[in-house]
Write a structure and sequence with these properties.
The chain is α/β, with parallel strands linked by helices and 338 residues long. It has a 7-stranded parallel β-sheet with strand order 3-2-1-4-5-6-11, with helices on both faces. It is globular and about 55 Å long. It starts with a strand and ends with a helix. The relative contact order is 0.14.
Length: 338
C-alpha cells in the first residue's frame, strides 16, 4: 500500500510512519514543521525515520495541508491508496490564545484532505479526532454513542467539525472515513506541551510542577504503542455503511454511509496525583507541586469505552502505566543527553 501520513513529524504521526514502514508499506509523510513546540524534536523524529532500515520506502515533503494548491498537486501526482490524517493544530489551552490557527489547520486543512481523497479515489481515510469532543458530558466511561454537542474549547469544536465534514463526504461520495477519538497519549518522543513531558522537565530541574484542579483530574493515559496499534487496525478495517442504521433512532458512531467513529484509549482512567507518583518513582526524585484550580477549556475526567474498536478490529491496549512512563523517562534521558 502507498499511504499518505500527514503530521509525519508529529508525535503520533512519527510512530505510525515507523510501523507502516515496518510492515512494508510505502509512506509519503508531510508536515509543516511549525514552531508550536521545539522544532528540534520534530527534526529528531524525522532523522530517526531516515535512519530506519526501510527508509527508502519513505519520502518526506515539508508542506502545510492548509495550502490548497499544494495539497491538490500532492494528491494528483502521488496516487495514494490510503490516508492517515494526523496533521492538526493541537492543544486545548492554545486554542484560547490563538483560535485562528485551529481554523486554518483543523478546518481548512481537513477540507483540503477531504477534497484530495474525493477526487483521487482514496480507499480509506483515517483521521484524528479527540476525546475533547465529549466536552461537558459527565457520563463515564465516554462511549461513541454519547452526545457530543457541547464542546468546551475551540480545539474540541474543530474536531467535532471534522467528524461532521467526514460524514458529509462519506455520504455524498461514498468515501470510507474513520475518525479516532484519541485519549491522552504519552510515550517516547511525546509532545512538550503534554503533562508527562512538562512534569519530567520540571522535576529534573528542581522546578515546581503546576497541578491543575488540585490533582483531582482523571485521565485515560494511553501509551503510544497501543495508539499506533489501534490506528493501523482501523486503517486495515475499511469503514463500511451500517446496514442496520435507523434514521429514526440514529447511532452517532455509524451511518448508512461508510463512516465510523471510535474511541482509542486505555480504558483505565488514572488520578493525576497517582500519575505524578508513578513518574516520581521512575525519575527517583520527588516533585514540588503547585496546586491550582481548573483551567478554562479543560475537563475533569476522561475515560474511554473502547469496546466498539475492540469488537470491530481486535484492538487491545496492554501497556501498564508504570511501564510506559519508564519507557518515556529512558527516552528523555537519552534524547536530552546528546
Amino acid at each position: 500500500m502507498k499511504v499518505l501520513v500527514t503530521g509525519a513529524a508529529g508525535f503520533i504521526g512519527f510512530h505510525v510512519t515507523q510501523q507502516l514502514l515496518e510492515r512494508g508499506d510505502t509512506v509519503i509523510g508531510i508536515d509543516n514543521i511549525n514552531d508550536y513546540y521545539d522544532v528540534k524534536l520534530k527534526e529528531g523524529r524525522l532523522n530517526t525515520i531516515a535512519e530506519h532500515t526501510l527508509s527508502d520506502n519513505f519520502t518526506f515533503i515539508k508542506m502545510d495541508v492548509a495550502d490548497r494548491q499544494l495539497t491538490e498537486k500532492l494528491f494528483a501526482e502521488s496516487a495514494f491508496d490510503q490516508v492517515v490524517h494526523l496533521a492538526a493544530q493541537a492543544g486545548v489551552r492554545y486554542s484560547i490564545e490563538n483560535p485562528h490557527a485551529y481554523v486554518d489547520s483543523n478546518l481548512v486543512g481537513f477540507m483540503n484532505i477531504l477534497e484530495g481523497c474525493r477526487h483521487n479515489k482514496i480507499k480509506h481515510l483515517v483521521y484524528a479526532s479527540s476525546s475533547s469532543v465529549y466536552g461537558s458530558n459527565e457520563s463515564t466511561p465516554f462511549t461513541v454513542t454519547d452526545n457530543v454537542d457541547h464542546p468546551v474549547s475551540l480545539y474540541a469544536a474543530s474536531k467535532k467539525a471534522n467528524e461532521l465534514m467526514a460524514h458529509t463526504y462519506s455520504h455524498l461520495y461514498q468515501l470510507p472515513t474513520t475518525g479516532l477519538r484519541f485519549f491522552t497519549v504519552y510515550g517516547p518522543w511525546g509532545r512538550p506541551d503534554m503533562a508527562l513531558f512538562k512534569f519530567t522537565e520540571s522535576i529534573l530541574n528542581g522546578k515546581p510542577i503546576e497541578v491543575f484542579n488540585y490533582g483531582n483530574h482523571h485521565r485515560d493515559f494511553t501509551y503510544i504503542d497501543d495508539i499506533v496499534s489501534g490506528v493501523i487496525l482501523s486503517l486495515d478495517n475499511v469503514a463500511a455503511g451500517n446496514k442496520e442504521w435507523d434514521g429514526k433512532n440514529p447511532d452517532p458512531s455509524s451511518s448508512k454511509a461508510p463512516w465510523k467513529i471510535y474511541n482509542i484509549g486505555a480504558h483505565n482512567p488514572v488520578n493525576l496525583l497517582k500519575f505524578i507518583e508513578t513518574l516520581e518513582d521512575a525519575l527517583g526524585k520527588k516533585a514540588v507541586k503547585k496546586m491550582l484550580p481548573m483551567q478554562p477549556g479543560d475537563v475533569p475526567d476522561t475515560y474511554a469505552d473502547v469496546s466498539a474498536l475492540t469488537k470491530d478490529t481486535g484492538y487491545a491496549p496492554k501497556t501498564e502505566l508504570a511501564t510506559g512512563i519508564r519507557q518515556f523517562v529512558t527516552w528523555y534521558h537519552s534524547f536530552y543527553s546528546k
